[in-house]
Amino acid sequence: MIRVAGLRKTYGGFPAVVGSDFDVGEGEIFGVVGPNGAGKTTTLKMLAGLVEPTEGTIEIGAYAAGDAEMRRHLGFLPEESPLYEDMTARSYLRFFADLYDVPREEATRRTEDTLDRLELEHRDRRLGDMSKGMKRKVAIARSLVNDPNLLIYDEPASGLDPLTTNYVLEFTRELVERGKTVVFSAHNLYHVESVCDRVVIMNRGEIIARGTVPEIREEHGETMYRVFTTVPVDGATATDDGRYLSIVDDMEAVEAVRAEAEAAGGSVADIRTEEPSLEEIFLDLAGRPPAAREDGRGRADPAAVARADGGGGDEGSVGERGDRRAR
Ligand SMILES: Nc1ncnc2c1ncn2[C@@H]1O[C@H](COP(=O)(O)OP(=O)(O)OP(=O)(O)O)[C@@H](O)[C@H]1O
């Protein structure tokens, strides 16, 4: 549905997006991920035809990005959605439906359905008196008034509480189940991991990884193995339930732990694999923490998780991986 080739955007010589290439299939939910300043918003605005690329092409179905006919089938949710503060949710949505010439009855049905699904209460309250989460729901409903088949959502869940975030992400998934195509950006990698079919990871204007989350894991991540033995082996730590834990990064090392345990008269009691999260892969690729962690809205710090559960849980930590990899 979307074909992007050689896309580049510079602002007064500053490269915000550097030679992007990617395709998005019809009915796909596609994530554009990266830290603040990675070039996500610029990419999405170019897709929506709101920013002119410096170089490159964007085809959306049979149209070029920005084509007036294409825009009729597009719903864009900006990162910050300024709403007319004095309007109520209902009057605001009716206003936008009128701009798209949606018949009144149809518009009412469509917007009420969306607001029901998003559980927006107080639909006749002034937008200026609504919370951030409520405003975001109204903005999402606005992106759907023209029943578009392509939705471009810039950070749809950014800054929302966990419950509202969940609603928004689930709702985004539902849109795809209803046959729509969704491209959305996020700096919280967990949001993307839980929802997207495919992603591109951007950093400083560049795509540094792409594919499904399992593909990215396979290409860039490293599966770790937590091997529990009944006797101590070199480098293992004792667990609360009287076993010994070794963390290693390949099957050869697993076999070495097994051989050592058996030589000491013990055995391997359990082996658990541990897949790296997208965030851990990002850390490895970009070499610095994503913004999600900087603003405290990201996933829990894995090192803190490991500390809290004594290192014996299924979730590993970046620090732990680094420390034990030497085995
Ligand atoms: N209109 C503009 N003029 C000049 N520089 C810009 C403009 N818009 C974006 N930039 C710069 O381009 C880079 C990419 O910005 P962009 O907003 O696309 O990033 P982003 O990944 O969406 O970040 P965020 O998560 O903070 O929204 C940033 O360094 C930004 O400062």
UniProtKB/TrEMBL annotation:
Residues 285-327 are annotated as: Disordered. It comes from the Archaea. Residues 2-229 form the ABC transporter domain. Gene3D superfamilies: P-loop containing nucleotide triphosphate hydrolases. GO terms for molecular function: ATP binding. Keywords: ATP-binding, Nucleotide-binding, Transport. The keyword ATP-binding applies. InterPro entries: AAA+_ATPase, ABC_transporter-like_ATP-bd, ABC_transporter-like_CS, ABC_transporter_ATP-binding, P-loop_NTPase. Pfam families: ABC_tran. Residues 291-300, 318-327 have a biased composition (Basic and acidic residues). Belongs to the ABC transporter superfamily. This is ABC transporter ATP-binding protein. It comes from Halogeometricum salsisoli.
